[in-house]
From TrEMBL:
Main subcellular localisation: membrane
Pfam families xrefs: PTS_EIIC_2
Subcellular location: Cell membrane
Name the record gives this protein: Phosphotransferase system EIIC domain-containing protein
GO terms, biological process: phosphoenolpyruvate-dependent sugar phosphotransferase system
InterPro entries assigned: PTS_EIIC
Molecular function terms, GO-annotated: protein-N(PI)-phosphohistidine-sugar phosphotransferase activity
Keyword Transport: yes
Membrane topology: Multi-pass membrane protein
GO cellular component: plasma membrane
Transmembrane segments: 6-25, 32-52, 64-81, 88-112, 132-161, 173-200, 212-232, 262-284
Domain Phosphotransferase system EIIC residues, every copy: 3-301
Length: 307
């Protein structure tokens, strides 16, 4: 049952590029058809859709940077051609926009992935060190990269990050999520906080890039999470490494790879993924506010674009 839930969640995650494309098009006030065209282009050019001898397969969520590039191209083409083709618009645009944008995306994908893989090899080099140090370094790295356009799933799959390394990466995502939850809870709306609680910390990229001081609690929480991953023995797969507790992908994978009494394992995972990270994040947040003058709740304010 848990494995089925995990598989369904992974399928949903694989459509991330399509969702990004549709939402981006919506910001430009595109109609439903136009939004779908951009979404399809993003999906095809993301790298998540792969063609094999056995057919079409979905692999990960694609490269976020390349998705952004494809979405920009697709939106530009749509705005350029909209209203210029008359009655042929609904015949030509649904083909031209996804195909042309995706083709450009597939051409740029290898070069963009080179950057991603470079970061990945740096992370993978940590595995040659002491397991505890490795866990901390990977957790901190993934915590800091979580709120950037870099695709963590792409990094993990590119270097086949498995076992304890995957578990540490997974806990790094948890560290990023809890950091932003406690920073946001007093200054943002309930909707924003709920989204963060679910685990979608990437929405805070603009906040993080504007206030890099947030890297301090991200690092500290990453250290705590790295120690937890090592102490509990959290393990995972390349695909689960970049999801944290979102959709329970991380906990389910860890549960399937831990031996012993199921009840004890569940208790350990509850404490490892939820209790200790949340408590430590609250403490670290309060300490940082007292010790760092430029660090306060206000820097976590998320500005929702006006429609």
């Amino acid at each position: 049952m848990l494995e089925t839930v995990f598989q369904l969640v992974m399928i949903i995650q694989s459509f991330m590029a399509f969702i990004i494309g549709v939402l981006a098009a919506h910001q430009f006030k595109f109609n439903g058809a136009g939004s779908c065209m951009v979404g399809i282009a993003a999906m095809l050019g993301s790298g998540a859709v792969q063609f094999t001898a056995k057919g079409i397969v979905l692999k990960g969520i694609g490269d976020i940077i390349n998705i952004i590039l494809v979405v920009i191209i697709a939106c530009a083409i749509y705005m350029f051609l909209q209203g210029k083709l008359g009655s042929l618009e609904m015949i030509i645009l649904p083909v031209v926009i996804p195909v042309l944008s995706a083709l450009i995306g597939l051409l740029t994908l290898p070069y963009v992935q080179t950057i991603t893989k470079g970061l990945g090899h740096m992370v993978n080099s940590f595995t040659d060190l002491n397991p505890l140090i490795m866990s901390i370094l990977i957790s901190v790295t993934f915590s800091l990269l979580m709120v950037t356009p870099i695709s963590l799933v792409a990094i993990a799959t590119a270097i086949s990050l498995t076992g304890l390394g995957s578990g540490a990466a997974n806990m790094g995502i948890v560290a990023a999520c809890v950091t932003f939850i406690f920073g946001s809870i007093r200054v943002n709306s309930m909707g924003v906080n709920i989204v963060l609680l679910i685990g979608a910390a990437k929405m805070m990229i603009p906040v993080y890039l504007k206030h890099l001081i947030i890297a301090v609690p991200l690092t500290l929480n990453g250290i705590v999470s790295g120690v937890l991953a090592y102490a509990i023995g959290i393990k995972g797969t390349p695909l689960s490494a970049g999801f944290g507790y979102t959709g329970l992908v991380g906990p389910i994978n860890a549960f399937n790879r831990m031996s012993g009494d199921a009840t004890i394992i569940i208790i350990l995972l509850v404490f490892g993924y939820f209790v200790i990270p949340f408590v430590s994040a609250f403490i670290i947040h309060e300490i940082c506010k007292k010790l760092i003058p430029s660090y306060h709740d206000g820097i976590y304010k998320f500005e929702i674009p006006k429609q």
